[in-house]
Amino acid sequence: MATESLEPDSSISALDDKKDVLSQLFVSGKFERLLEEIEAGSGQVSATIRSVYDSDEQNDFEQALEVRLQTNSKEIERMCNKNYQGFIEAVGKLDEVRADSDSLKSQIIKVDKSNQHSGIDVLAKFSELEQGRNVQLNVMRTIENITMCIPALEMYCRLLDQIDKKQHYGALKTLEHLEHVTLPKVSQFTFCNLMTERIPEIRQLIKKKSRADIREFLEKVREKSEYIGEVAMHQTLRHSNIEMMKEVISRINPLQDQETDLCAQDLLNFSPVYKCLHIYSVLGAREEFESYYRDQRHRQARLVLQQRHGQWEDSIQLFKSYFFQIAGFFVVEDTVMHTTQGLVTSTVADDLWSMAVHRIMAVLRSHSTTCREIAILMGIKELVVWFCQTMRSYGYSVEKLFELLLELREMYVDILMKNFADDFARDFRRSTFIPVSVKTEGEYQKVCSTLNFHDPELARAAFPKQFKFSELVLQTFNLLKDFIKNCNLFTYKLNLSQTDIDERVRKSINHLFQRTLSSQLNQLVRNTRLQVQQLAQVYVDFRYLEGSCAELSKFISKTTQTRNEGPHTVRMHGAQVMREACKDCEEQMMILLCSKLSDFVESSEYEWECKPGSNHASKSRFIDDALHYVDIMLETFKSLPPELSRQLCITSCRHMSVEVQSLILSSEVPAISLNWFLLFDTDLNALESYSQSSHVHRLGISSKEILQEYAPLRQLIKLALSGDWSGYITDFESNGPMYPDLLPSNVNIVIKKVRLSEFPKKSRKKGLLHVHGKKESNPSIEARENYYDMIIQRINGLKERKPRENN
């Protein structure tokens, strides 16, 4: 019963299981495609899951996943159960093989030990035989190799011996044969490799040794350059017939004729240069040698061109040595350039020469700017010309040095001008300003030849003869000629044409006139120790020097060997300078003359408020002294041109008139009485009467001209004596002829002084006498005072007018 009751239940469960399986198969079949995509990984899982959720079948899909999981697990378990039995069988067979392999290994070891024991004796005999054979072969190979190496070793020893004996060129040849012929035959040996490695070192050693030879050569060049240059410059001196100054010749050591016939190769061994150049060329280092040689010579050039220092007295000797060394340096360069190919090219030589020229110019400029001796500058110029001629003969350009000589000439002329300025000052200072007097015909001809002077009247005169000019003219003219000679001397041999020389000399003499002589003449004229008489002689001398400028121009043309006048001849400024000096002299004579006359006027002792009854017959003493002085001056002025004498005479009269008038108008004279005007009328008559003197007529001056100078003073005295003050006012307002030269301001001063003299009780200002008291009640006095006040007031109202000019 129990069994029966159970069977229905089991069948029911089986049916349920079948239903579940069928439903799972249905579900899994439904999602098969999606599951395959997930397993294959061909699609995106997110898209697959989204499609499941979009169709709202997620529960079914989960069941399908569960079914697929269970299926895959069962498949894995089935495969593991199937392969496990084969694995167990393989491990068993492997255990059986291991036992057999251990047995085989032990048998092999036994067999190997037996074979090794039986072959020991055979191996020992074979080793002995092999060793003997190797010894025999090594001996034979050693003998063969030594035979091959002996020539290389012998040649290497010969190479070192040649280097020690300074046979550098032979050593170089041995080295080349050793490297290219001998060593390749024994290249397999170690010593060959060592020799091969040393070959560059040996080449450098040969270069170093040969460079030491060239250094010795350069030292000898340095030592002998001055002598080589001296010989070369003496050869130029002998062949070009250059005339040297005594100052230069005296400082030059004379050379024997056989010495001047020597060339640079006779004086210096150039073989080290040629050998070293060839060695470097073979070594392929010619450019290196050329660079080294040129660099060393460039340094030597800088050393040679350095400025020498010493005493001024040794300047010519220093420059002689300086130019000898430079000349020797370039003579050596010229020899190397013409005896080698490319070691010294024309470009290199020109560069060195250009550097030398610039340095020489700098040295000469530096030395010349501090030099003050024209003899030293002239000596340096001669040396430079000599040096230029020498270098030109070797093909070097010397134009810049000649241009420098023209600069030195300007310095020379400046120093020359300073020296001549001292000479002019010395002669002017020592001059006595006395006309030259000669006692013999020889003295007369000497003076005439100096100035090319011709005066028929003086030539006919008896001895002793007297020239109008003083020794100053001769001294100045001789100095001017010496200056011209010195200027021309420096321009000699400067590659200038005669026209250029003449132009430069004329410009120099013009500078001397304008800068130096003009200043010295001005100082001479302004010299306070000179009197009017001496200035008159100076004026005469200046006129003669002015006239001698034409002769000076002829002397320049004769000295420079050119025509005296031409379209391009530089105009001389000497005459203009002398004319200006004459004008200065005229002004100074007038100043001194007027100053002396002013002294006379200042020495007057007038009694300005003299009483009536004073002596009116005789003139004042200072008037006599002044007129006497004028007489002496006019006598002195005979040697002057008439026009100048006439001007000086009229100027002295005008100055006397102005000085006396200034004295009258001076504030130091407070009052002037009418009686003084009567007294001064006598002095004025004496001054006016001088117009009738013989001295005045001799100069061709009319009395009217002299009286015209005293006209303002005469009109003032006339007005004061007449007392016609109202008449002056009327004449002035109507431009009348009575007082044309009287200014209202002067008349105002005089009337105030007359009024103060007439009424002394009035107080006087500025510390003068004061009179205190009551005013008098005299009607006539009051009327007179009122009259004066009215006249003064009217004169103050007059407008000033320009006084008339005196012709």
From TrEMBL:
Keyword NAD annotated: no
BP GO terms, sorted: Golgi to plasma membrane transport; intracellular protein transport; vesicle tethering involved in exocytosis
Domain Exocyst complex component EXOC6/Sec15 N-terminal, chain residue ranges per copy: 65-233
RNA-binding keyword on record: no
Signal sequence range: none
Keyword annotations of the record: Coiled coil, Exocytosis, Transport
Stored InterPro entries: EXOC6/Sec15 (IPR007225), EXOC6/Sec15_C (IPR046361), EXOC6/Sec15_C_dom1 (IPR042045), EXOC6_Sec15_N (IPR048359), EXOC6PINT-1/Sec15/Tip20_C_dom2 (IPR042044)
Domain of life where this protein originates: Eukaryota
Xref: Gene3D superfamilies: Dsl1p vesicle tethering complex, Tip20p subunit, domain D, Exocyst complex subunit Sec15 C-terminal domain, N-terminal subdomain
Pfam family, one: EXOC6_Sec15_N
One GO cellular component, as annotated: membrane
Domain Exocyst complex subunit EXOC6/Sec15 C-terminal, residue spans: 400-753
PANTHER family: EXOCYST COMPLEX COMPONENT 6, SEC15
Function: Component of the exocyst complex involved in the docking of exocytic vesicles with fusion sites on the plasma membrane.
Protein family membership: Belongs to the SEC15 family.
Name of the protein this chain belongs to: Exocyst complex component
Lineage: Eukaryota, Metazoa, Porifera, Hexactinellida, Hexasterophora
